[in-house]
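[09:14] KT: can someone run the structure on this one? pasting the chain below
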Amino acid sequence: MERTQELFVQIEDYLNGQMDAADKDAFERQMSSEEGLKAEVEKHRLLKEAMGDADLMAFQEKLGRVSLELKEEAIQPSRQSFSYQLIFKYAAAFLLLIVSIIAVISFLPNDQSGQLFQDYYTPYPLESSLRGSEESAELIVVKQQYKNEQYVEITSDLERLSVYYEQDHSLKLYLASCYLEQAQLQKAKRVLSQIPVDDHYRSKAEWFLALISIKEGKKEEALILLKQLSKSDSFYTESAMDILKELR
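[09:31] RB: done, structure tokens below
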């Protein structure tokens, strides 16, 4: 994979939701077949989270201005062969690049975190429909697609259905799993956080929130959630206890 400016623009468009449906599908298929591209997208996403959208935009604009000034300086005739101003501008550009690299490195999860996530993460299992429960034909179809692991295809449907069936918090777990299958950690976190603390689905949400924290390298956040789960009577209690042993 060649790391070009065109590729970086594609990645930014994808992360900012600015691709149309056809381009997005093609890009996601490419990611699924190219580990290098998938890793590059993850780095860009983490950089955005580390710096914040506003800071990242300001950084890009400043770097662009410095680059433009350097080009103008290079073509302008100079009386001196040694320009301290030019050196300063090169140093400023270099410093900006170093800052961005440090931000990414400090925010990237370590190998253990990534492996733990892979070892313990599985999408939330499809629940059996309660006898006598009223489900629309669309919801039945979407659940069947979820069972068939068509996560990308049903994401937009679940986004809408989880709002329509607001009290059915299992749909939020399905939606979060779809996001996680597409490495959209922040979207998954937002959906999982919407499940009320006193709801019986909350402990299941906290399991996935803990895994996301592990994936992001936020060990302390993960430990808090996992310790709570280890003391509860939850579907994920045993797994929480196992992963705690590996984190300590």
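[09:33] KT: thanks! Residues 104-109 have pLDDT under 50 and may be disordered.
[09:34] RB: yep, looked fine to me
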